[in-house]
Amino acid sequence: MTTDAHPGPLRVLVFGASLRTDSVNARLASLVARLFAEADAETDLAGMGDFEMPLYNGDVELDQGLPQGALELRDRIERCDGFVISSPEYNASVPGVLKNAIDWVSRVRPQPFKDKNAMLVSASPSLVGGNRGLWALRVPLEHLGTRVYPDMFSLANAYQGFTDGGHLSDAVLQQRLSETVTSFLRLVEADVRYVVLQRRWYEFLADCTDAPITQRAQD
Hints:
Order of helices and strands: EHEHHEHEHEEH
Radius of gyration: 18 Å
Largest sheet: 6 strands, parallel
Number of helices: 6
Shape: globular
Structural class: alpha/beta
């Protein structure tokens, strides 16, 4: 039986990973969310302050279970087809509050990062735009089975990087960001709607993901 039903819009979670309300990464997340909306994606814009959770502690998890903030973030990730993290860089690495959120959410079973497509962006007043932090952020996400988009975007000199209307001051960078969003969305669409292969993840030859001694965090 054939159908002319048109699939619904792709769902993208855009997550600003700074606690500061008016941080440059919150502004970048807002811009990215706008670009996805203009590309007809259903966009869920969120910030770190939306998900309260304590520092990860195994005793707390054992006694009280997962905090509500971690469960709410899990729900938002599960509902999306792909997600974007706009993250600051702290001391050339991942902000502790973001790593803590990833650690809590990774305790859910089945954990929601596995097989999700993610795009990483950053904004910083530094000359490298927070890019070193994004390289560090790839490590836990890829370890959990996330397919992190290769083309990351970093905005340097971010305090002067935005117009009053919320776009990037540099037209060339604005175009590059728009193209990155479009390319990522096409990848998500292909992965969600046109799946032709069942994927398996291997670290080395003869490795088997369901073998007891090679269980992955993504499982």
